[in-house]
């Protein structure tokens, strides 16, 4: 039997305070927690962060993804959470990663890193496609952070 994969793509406003270094330390904690929790739940995905916002894909069994997303929504490290896409998908985009980290602050992605949430939310379907592609390309490019 094939596994039903449910996928959520959301973005949110980063409410981390402190210097960029302090924020990166906090991101490392989020990734460590995700990589500890997600495998047992059958969840894979990717997380992107810049000074303005987070974008994350969570994919896996419906119940597990929903439960994890509920916890994430209560997390004070971000707010203004907007679901850009959700539903069943035929396959995972990030089968190898319990939570991949896609750096959004490197050279060629600068303009995308500068995207602001308001602009993204004006056209959710374009934003969803754009962020999905961005996450996939960044995760593939960057193997420093992507091991499970
Ligand atoms: C942007 C963002 C993404 C997160 N992603 C995950 C995730 O994929 N999996 C996870 O378990 N926790 C994630 N967290 C952390 C949760 O909000 C929460 O702190 C954590 O799940 C609590 O786990 P615990 O009950 O094992 O301490 C994320 C938090 C933020 C701010």
UniProtKB/TrEMBL annotation:
**Per the database record, which ranges form the BLUF domain?**
5-100
Q: Name one Pfam family in it.
A: BLUF
- InterPro entries from the UniProt entry: Acylphosphatase-like_dom_sf (IPR036046), BLUF_domain (IPR007024)
Alphabetically, the GO molecular function entries are: blue light photoreceptor activity; FAD binding
Q: Which SMART domains match?
A: BLUF (SM01034)
Q: What is this protein called?
A: BLUF domain-containing protein
